[in-house]
Design a protein that fits this description.
single chain; 174 residues; two-stranded antiparallel ribbon; 32% helix; 18% strand
Length: 174
C-alpha cells in the first residue's frame, strides 16, 4: 500500500454505508460525526505568514479542512476545537522533542488531538517521537506553503484530501 494511502484499519463505518478515514486511530470515533456534519472545503490556499495573527488564521483554516469544524483561535499560539488542539511556532530554530511532548500532553489531558505547525521545522527527535505518539506535525514557510512532517500529519492530509474529493464528487455541483 502506498505511503500516503489511508490504511483500511483507519476507515470508520458511518451511517448510510459510508466510510470516513480518521488518522488518529479508533479513539473517540463517535466524535467524528457524520459525513453531513462536515462542510466540503477546498484545501486552504498558501498565504504570507509573517506574524502570529496570520499564522493562527492559517492554522484555523487547515484545522477546519481536517474536519475540526469548530476550530477557532484561542490565544497567541493556539487554535482549539472540541476535538483538537493546534499549536503555532514561529521560531526559526524549529521545534524540539520536549515541546512536541508538552503539546501532546496538554492535548491528551483535554482528550484532544495534537497538531503542531512550525515555521522552523522540527528536530529529527521530535519527528520520531510524534511518529510513535499520534501527533500531527506540519512545517510551513513564510509564503504559507504547508507540508506534513510526521506520519500522522501525512495521513491526516491525505485522508482529508480524499474525503473532500469524495464528498465533492457526491455533491451535485450544478
Amino acid at each position: 500500500m502506498p505511503e500516503n494511502e489511508p490504511r483500511p484499519d483507519r476507515l470508520i463505518d458511518l451511517s448510510e454505508g459510508r466510510r470516513r478515514w480518521w488518522p488518529f486511530g479508533r479513539r473517540n470515533i463517535e466524535s467524528v460525526g457524520s459525513v453531513a456534519d462536515t462542510a466540503v472545503r477546498l484545501r486552504p490556499l498558501p498565504r504570507e505568514v509573517s506574524d502570529s495573527d496570520q499564522g493562527l488564521d492559517m492554522i484555523r483554516d487547515w484545522m477546519r479542512y481536517f474536519a475540526f469544524i469548530d476550530a477557532s483561535r484561542n490565544d497567541e499560539s493556539t487554535v482549539l476545537s472540541s476535538r483538537g488542539l493546534a499549536h503555532l511556532s514561529l521560531d526559526d530554530q524549529g521545534v524540539g522533542t520536549r515541546e512536541v511532548m508538552e503539546i501532546h500532553s496538554i492535548a491528551a489531558m483535554s482528550d484532544k488531538y495534537a497538531v503542531v505547525f512550525s515555521r522552523g521545522g522540527f528536530t529529527s527527535g521530535a519527528i520520531r517521537w510524534a511518529d510513535k505518539n499520534p501527533t500531527a506535525l506540519f512545517e510551513f514557510d513564510r509564503d504559507g506553503q504547508v507540508k506534513a512532517s510526521s506520519e500522522t500529519a501525512q495521513r491526516l492530509l491525505a485522508g482529508s484530501d480524499e474525503r473532500h474529493l469524495a464528498e465533492m464528487s457526491d455533491t451535485d455541483l450544478d
